[in-house]
Design a protein that fits this description.
By secondary structure, the chain is mainly β. It has a three-stranded antiparallel beta sheet with strand order 1-2-3. A two-stranded antiparallel sheet has the order 4-5.
């Protein structure tokens, strides 16, 4: 990573734990999970203090082209966005 960070709580050394996409949005009573699916995700770096265990989150550089990751349907073999609950081509549910 190349960064050197100190913990804001205890001053200890922070270590890069992982980079992850965090889902945005929230579930609603009326629309269920659709607001979550439509809201997208935010890419973050997670750092952890080696001494006290405090976690820090930072915006991660976007290394994608802006499109959603793809998955392949096991039924028809066509690629589509990973966040569809079923294949948009053949209707196969996951």
């Amino acid at each position: 990573m190349g960064k050197s960070l100190n913990c804001l709580r205890c001053g200890g050394e922070m270590a890069h734990a992982f980079t992850e996409n965090i889902q945005l949005g929230k579930t609603s009573l009326l629309f269920g999970d659709w607001p979550n699916i439509l809201a997208g995700a935010m890419r973050v770096e997670v750092w952890c203090c080696k001494d006290c265990g405090r976690l820090e989150f930072f915006s991660a550089p976007d290394d994608t082209d802006g499109s959603l990751p793809q998955t392949t349907c096991p039924n028809c073999g066509r690629s589509h966005d990973f966040d569809y609950p079923k294949c948009p081509f053949c209707g196969h549910s996951y």
